[in-house]
Amino acid sequence: MKRDGRRLHSRLPTGTMLAAGAVLLLGACTAPGSTGASGSAPGAVVGPVATVATGLDLPWSIAVLPDGSALVSENDSGLIKHISDGVTVAAAPVRPAPDPAGEGGLLGLALSPGFAKDRRVYAYLTTRQDNRVLSYRWQDEQLTDARVILSGIPKARVHNGGRLKFGPDGYLYIGTGDAMNPRSAQDRDSLAGKILRVTRDGAPAPGNPFGHSPVYSYGHRNVQGLAWDSSGQLWASEFGPDRDDELNRIKAGGNYGWPSVTGAPGDSRFIDAAYVWPSTAVASPSGLAIVDDVAWLAALRGQRLWEVRLGRTIRDGDVSDSLVQEYGRLRDVTEAPDGRLWILTNDAKPDRMLALRVK
User: Fold this and answer.
1) Would you identify the CATH topology of the domain 55-290?
2) CB neighbours of 231 closer than 8 A, spacing ≥ 6?
3) Handedness of CA 173, 174, 175, 176 (dihedral sign)
4) DSSP secondary structure of 78-124
5) Domain assignments of the chain as residue spans, ordered by start
6) What would the pLDDT profile of 115-141 be if each residue is shown by its tens digit?
């Protein structure tokens, strides 16, 4: 069984036919599931939901190409698919072939900041030995010149992390999981349970908080989403155990408490989550996008899209949800070139990429 990928629908304890433009009705916004309060505060979802592409198989991550098309990673198949105008125009396998057991497989994608010249695509994948980040040259609809950027990230059947994003500083940020060894999240010599920050070649980025180490923050259980607001502040979404899914404001060198604490207990040894969903039935926040300082989170178990208006303090009135149980599990969300959100469903048989207009 698999919660954050395909088959697990409960929490773990601590320890290609394609179509474009098919328009579907938008689910109404509902109250924040973390509190049970009434109302739907931000309410920034407008217009209908459109199906951009279908026939996908367990898609995990979207990377937007300069021409406005998209690369999409498929978890089990190990394919990176090129979606253009609602059609899969190419499907290229990554090498080595990933190990899709449990929550492993082909996970996050990111484009080099210099993609227009270097054509490099970065991918996070699980091998038989570890989780690792590789870069490839995307040319003529093929992946060539594979380079290992960072290896040795602990793997397990679950809690493999997998999100990749280049930050505004030009460095690559990598979200990892504790690989079912919670204590590793507090071990700064381990790559598990961390947010890592490296150069395009995989070296620890200059200015990292712990010297010549890729570790940027630690004490994480299973980081799933990374995004920056207009001020350059990094935010991350994270799975809790059987409670306390989190949206975290990330500080360089920060300790976010796992496995000693979850959520926002006010323990001075650790950094509290900026927002907590105590009920995991409505959350499991995966991919994260920030548009005009509003965070959008794709929820797996919660089967909905969460909207969080960011600020120094985030209250329940700043949080609402939409698409509730309309499209099944949602894995990733990113801003599309036309200003809409692109959203990946996960385990919908077949899966698809949706487009949603927001303010």
Assistant:
1) Neuraminidase (2.120.10)
2) none
3) negative
4) -EEEEEETTEEEEEEE-SSPP--STT-SEEEEEE-TTHHHH-EEEEE
5) 55-290
6) 999 999 999 999 999 999 999 999 999
